[in-house]
Automatic annotation (TrEMBL):
This is HicB-like antitoxin of toxin-antitoxin system domain-containing protein. Residues 6-55 form the HicB-like antitoxin of toxin-antitoxin system domain. Pfam families: HicB_lk_antitox (PF15919).
Length: 66
């Protein structure tokens, strides 16, 4: 899976990383490299939580293009 990251440095000097495709998934680090390493863990956690919430009934799932 490939995801785009949005990285910016905050006023305290920390690098904050957000994953736009995964709402609420973000992390930080003292360096850009540390922040990117940390966001990997955040992504794994986000995906784990969301997969546990995706218990669908036996209804029909369809895909649409907008």
């Amino acid at each position: 899976m490939k995801l785009q990251l949005h990285i910016e440095q905050d006023e305290a000097g920390y690098f904050v990383v957000a994953v736009p495709a995964l709402p609420g998934c973000l992390s930080q680090g003292k360096t850009k490299e540390e922040a990117i390493k940390n966001v990997h863990e955040a992504i794994e956690g986000w995906l784990e939580v969301m997969s546990s919430k995706s218990e669908y009934s036996r209804g029909e799932l369809i895909e649409v293009t907008v």
